[in-house]
């Protein structure tokens, strides 16, 4: 049904594109990420996903407007919710969706079959699709199109009988409920984008505007039903006032979406849509005032009647000034005529005002009731009959899966995250509580040996000639690892990768600076009041903070590289000697001057008791060094055993059992908790995370690490100290030697210690450079991600700026009045003020077609009032008059006022009007809750009941 024959409009659909390779792409992703399930076992599930999406959107990328489309989209939504319990929302797959309102100058429309007509706009969308790697994005698009299907079904219902009206109201209320649910899921969508630009057509103001549009149209159909049931004029006025209020809210949200907010990009709502909302708002504001004017007439509130008629005329003129371009013909006809009254509502109001205009002087003279100013008119309290209704299949989607769950064989996503966190914890425990403590103990032992010049001093004392074995071992290590050339090559590699990382960081910051400069130019060109999108400083703040963090890390790494280069410069000469082998070392390590076992003082000087004492000291020291070496080897074996044992410790079954227990508790709590937790994890609720698993992880970790903590504690107790036997044996060896060692002996010991230490420094620098290369590789990955994020940010902001610039250049503002940035707040009860305009026509008195006759009003009979006024006029001018003819009955209150003095008439009039108003409001309070109660108990499949 075309919108030109309908005074209600559907929601625009979100186009998508078929994903012919969805199954293959998801299987390729699972092959790289799933360690527990083979991808071939998941192929049927992947194909089922691809087939279900194709059924939901067909090859055109649009759902059909049919009663079977709703359950199909609900089923796809439920499957996506279940998939989100197995997979993270961020995936390598991208889901393309076109923005809303692909035709920027027309209202959304549906053909007879429910699909968009084959126009150029639908065949070739003006904007490219936005493809995002987020399952939350796909789910939001599905949920929105489900709301659009319900809204389209509501517009296609024939509303000339009670069944059609009930079905239309049910459809619009369901559409509003779906959009309300979508609003609750938008934070998850934004979180899945990790600070990237969110789709402007799925922002909170945009969805709110369309939600309020659905509620307004549901309330409008309820108003039509109230007119058909001939409810009191005061009741109809309250229902119409709520219609106007909802259209005003929708218009305010749409204008807020056009302007943009701190959390949402500007979205170019079509002018025709905002014009349609403004006309409806003004029209129903006039309808509410007109109906209340009839009510005031019956209650003899003549001043209020004239004031409300004047206000209704103002609102109708306001609707006429907005223009008709792009507005459905049926909406324009609502302002003109209906079956119940061949006169347009505008003319009806003008005729009533014309009749009342000649009586204005009569009111002033007789009834003391001049037209009430608009600011003094009592506000019309709105009566809400339409409310957003969420289907149970969306409130608890996992409980309404009517087909086998897709990827049920996969480990739940939160379980996988817990297991991944467990692996990270195990690696951390090995590093911090085993390897780090072992390294600290090793450094203390090495420091003590270096302080005692061991084992080089022992070897120098035992072997006064030739190169000591410790130095030869150091030279062998240096030669085996490539020597100085390898260190120089690795330092060059470190400088190269550090430069690459620095260039990536500079490229990222330059991209942000370039975008900031472009944004400043746009802001200066269009002016800050019009260029309302967030500034670059605010939008790019997370990226700039990340860049600053990585820059600090890169600067610290550069300082560490400088220390390694300085260390290399200090030990380069010694390393080149070690690299030269035995011959080079023989030239650098002097002899002590004596033969084997001598002390450098003569051939026979070391014989006798002194030599025996030195030999005993050497053997004791050698035994202690061997014992220390055994302890160090045992500690290394403990570290290896701990590394292997901790890596093999699994808690998979324990976590699965705990997850199932929590899921069962969630199901026992009911569908509401399940609906809150869908997409988060098995049994998890919204806002919950891995912190609720901390107790389990900490308990398992303590049980696992208890034995290895004890092993490391025992290993620390065996470390040599200042009064250890090793130090005492070294002192004994020195005491057994000559009291004054020769210069040659001292030089040999210094050279031996120097080159042995050089070998240790070589190993240390080699490890530092290897760690540096690995560090820069990881840092390069982070910087690459930052650079790509900055590029994506620049691309999205540039496209957004171009769209906003085109919108500012091409879109004239509606007149009158200028658009507001937010919907006006509802007046406080009892506050006299002019109500916000609303747009729709007054009701007819009988069943009408949905495209016609919903806006006209029949002219009420005014003979009673005119006769009373005529009689009062005659009494004032010509004295008492004869009773009026029986065909024209004069109200008793009017006769009473005419006979009383002017002051008494005024007081009596006020008292009687107050009594009459209280009686009428009591009757309306009885009538409106009856209709509202019928709405509150309605069945979504049956629509709404009245009366």
SSE diagram, text form:
Layout: H1 22-33, H2 43-57, H3 69-83, E1 90-97, H4 120-123, E2 130-134, H5 135-156, H6 162-192, H7 204-228, H8 233-259, H9 271-298, H10 302-321, H11 329-334, H12 345-358, H13 360-367, H14 392-395, H15 413-451, H16 456-462, H17 469-480, H18 483-526, H19 536-539, H20 541-579, H21 581-588, H22 609-648, H23 652-669, H24 671-677, H25 694-717, H26 725-736, H27 743-810, H28 863-878, H29 892-899, H30 902-936
Antiparallel strand pairs: 1-2
Helix pairs in contact: 1-2, 2-3, 3-5, 5-6, 6-7, 7-8, 8-9, 9-10, 10-12, 15-22, 15-25, 16-27, 17-20, 17-27, 18-20, 18-27, 20-27, 22-25, 22-26, 23-24, 28-29, 29-30
Describe the structure.
Among the domains are: 10-197, Serine Threonine Protein Phosphatase 5, Tetratricopeptide repeat (Alpha Horseshoe); 203-382 and 832-860 and 913-947, alix/aip1 like domains (Serine Threonine Protein Phosphatase 5, Tetratricopeptide repeat); 454-601 and 744-825, alix/aip1 like domains (Butyryl-CoA Dehydrogenase, subunit A, domain 3). The chain is elongated. It has helices at residues 22-33, 43-57, 69-83, 120-123, 135-156, 162-192, 204-228, 233-259, 271-298, 302-321, 329-334, 345-358, 360-367, 392-395, 413-451, 456-462, 469-480, 483-526, 536-539, 541-579, 581-588, 609-648, 652-669, 671-677, 694-717, 725-736, 743-810, 863-878, 892-899, 902-936, and strands at residues 90-97, 130-134. With 947 residues, it is mostly helical. The protein has a two-stranded antiparallel sheet with strand order 1-2. The chain contains 30 helices and 2 strands. Residues 732-746, 837-847, 867-877 have a biased composition (Low complexity). Residues 814-830 have a biased composition (Pro residues). Pfam families: ALIX_LYPXL_bnd, BRO1. Residues 592-601 have a biased composition (Gly residues).
């Amino acid at each position: 049904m075309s919108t030109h024959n309908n005074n209600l409009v559907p929601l625009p659909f979100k186009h998508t594109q078929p994903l012919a390779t969805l199954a293959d792409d998801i299987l390729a992703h699972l092959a790289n990420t799933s360690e527990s399930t083979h991808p071939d076992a998941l192929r049927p599930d992947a194909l089922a996903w691809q087939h279900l999406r194709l059924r939901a959107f067909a090859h055109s990328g649009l759902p059909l407007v049919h009663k079977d489309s709703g359950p199909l989209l609900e089923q796809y939504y439920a499957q996506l919710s279940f998939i989100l319990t197995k997979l993270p929302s961020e995936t390598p797959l991208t889901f393309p969706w076109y923005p809303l309102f692909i035709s920027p100058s027309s209202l959304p429309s549906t053909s007879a079959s429910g699909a968009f007509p084959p126009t150029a706009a639908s065949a070739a969308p003006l904007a490219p699709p936005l493809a995002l790697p987020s399952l939350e994005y796909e789910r939001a698009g599905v949920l929105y199109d489900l709301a659009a299907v319900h809204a389209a079904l509501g517009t296609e219902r024939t509303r000339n009988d009670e069944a059609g009206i009930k079905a239309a109201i049910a459809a619009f209320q369901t559409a509003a409920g779906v959009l309300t649910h979508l609003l609750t899921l938008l934070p998850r969508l934004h979180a899945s984008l990790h600070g990237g630009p969110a789709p402007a057509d799925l922002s909170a103001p945009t969805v709110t505007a369309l939600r309020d549009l659905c509620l307004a149209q549901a309330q409008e159909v309820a108003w039509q039903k109230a007119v058909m049931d001939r409810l009191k004029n005061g009741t109809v006025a309250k229902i119409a006032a709520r219609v106007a209020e909802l259209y005003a809210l929708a218009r305010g949200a749409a204008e807020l979406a056009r302007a943009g907010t701190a959390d949402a990009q500007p979205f170019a709502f079509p002018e025709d849509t905002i014009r349609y909302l403004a006309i409806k708002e003004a029209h129903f504001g006039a309808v509410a005032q007109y109906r209340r004017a009839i009510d005031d007439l019956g209650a003899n509130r003549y001043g209020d009647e004239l004031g409300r008629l004047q206000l209704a005329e103002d609102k109708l003129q306001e609707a006429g000034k907005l223009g008709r371009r792009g507005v459905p013909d049926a909406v324009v006809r609502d302002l003109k005529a209906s079956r119940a009254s061949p006169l347009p509502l505008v003319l009806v109001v003008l005729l009533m005002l014309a009749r009342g205009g000649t009586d204005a002087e009569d009111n002033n003279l007789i009834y003391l009731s001049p037209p009430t100013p608009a600011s003094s008119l009592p506000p019309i309290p709105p009566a809400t009959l339409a409310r957003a209704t969420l289907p149970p299949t969306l409130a608890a989607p996992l409980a309404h899966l009517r087909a086998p769950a897709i990827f049920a064989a996969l480990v739940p996503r939160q379980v996988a995250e817990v297991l991944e966190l467990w692996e990270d914890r195990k690696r951390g425990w090995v590093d911090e509580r085993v390897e780090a403590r072992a390294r600290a103990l090793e450094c203390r032992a090495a420091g003590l040996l270096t302080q005692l010049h061991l084992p080089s001093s022992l070897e120098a004392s035992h072997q006064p000639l030739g190169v000591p074995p410790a130095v030869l071992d150091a030279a062998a290590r240096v030669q085996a690892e490539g020597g100085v050339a390898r260190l120089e090559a690795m330092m060059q590699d470190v400088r190269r990768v550090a430069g690459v990382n620095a260039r990536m960081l500079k490229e990222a910051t330059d991209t942000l600076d370039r975008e900031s400069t472009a944004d400043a130019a746009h802001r200066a060109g269009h002016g800050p009041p019009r260029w309302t999108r967030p500034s670059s400083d605010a939008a790019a703040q997370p990226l700039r903070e990340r860049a600053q963090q990585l820059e600090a890390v890169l600067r610290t790494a550069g300082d560490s590289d400088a220390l390694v280069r300085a260390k290399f410069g200090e030990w380069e000469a010694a390393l080149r000697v070690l690299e030269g082998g035995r011959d080079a070392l023989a030239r650098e390590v002097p002899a002590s001057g004596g033969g084997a076992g001598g002390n450098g003082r003569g051939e026979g000087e070391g014989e006798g008791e002194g030599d025996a004492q030195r030999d005993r000291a050497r053997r004791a020291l050698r035994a202690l060094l061997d014992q220390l070496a055994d302890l160090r080897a045992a500690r290394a074996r403990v570290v290896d055993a701990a590394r292997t044992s901790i890596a093999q410790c699994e808690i998979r079954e324990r976590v699965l059992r705990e997850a199932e227990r929590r899921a069962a508790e969630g199901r026992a709590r009911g569908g509401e908790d399940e609906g809150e937790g869908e997409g988060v994890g098995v049994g998890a609720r919204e806002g919950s995370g891995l912190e609720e698993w901390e107790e389990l992880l900490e308990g398992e970790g303590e049980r696992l690490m208890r034995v290895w903590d004890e092993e490391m504690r025992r290993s620390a107790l065996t470390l040599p100290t200042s009064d250890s036997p090793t130090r005492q044996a070294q002192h004994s060896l020195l005491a057994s030697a000559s009291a004054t060692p020769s210069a040659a002996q001292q030089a040999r010991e210094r050279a031996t210690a120097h080159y042995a230490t050089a070998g240790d420094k070589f190993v240390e620098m080699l490890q530092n450079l290897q760690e540096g290369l690995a560090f820069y590789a990881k840092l390069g990955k982070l910087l690459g991600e930052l650079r790509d994020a900055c590029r994506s940010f620049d691309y999205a902001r540039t496209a957004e700026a171009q769209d906003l610039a085109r919108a500012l250049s091409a879109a004239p503002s509606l007149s009158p009045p200028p658009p507001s940035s937010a919907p006006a707040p509802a007046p406080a009860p009892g506050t006299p003020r002019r109500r916000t305009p609303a747009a729709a026509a007054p009701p007819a008195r009988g069943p009408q077609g949905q495209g016609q006759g919903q806006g006209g009003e029949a002219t009420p009979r005014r003979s009673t009032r005119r006769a009373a006024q005529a009689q009062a006029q005659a009494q004032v001018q010509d004295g008492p008059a004869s009773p009026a003819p029986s065909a024209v009955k004069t109200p008793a209150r009017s006769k009473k006022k005419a006979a009383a003095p002017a002051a008494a008439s005024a007081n009596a009039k006020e008292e009687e009007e107050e009594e009459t108003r209280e009686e009428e409001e009591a009757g309306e309070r009885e009538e409106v809750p009856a209709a509202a109660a019928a709405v509150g108990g309605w069945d979504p499949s049956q629509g709404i009941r009245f009366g």
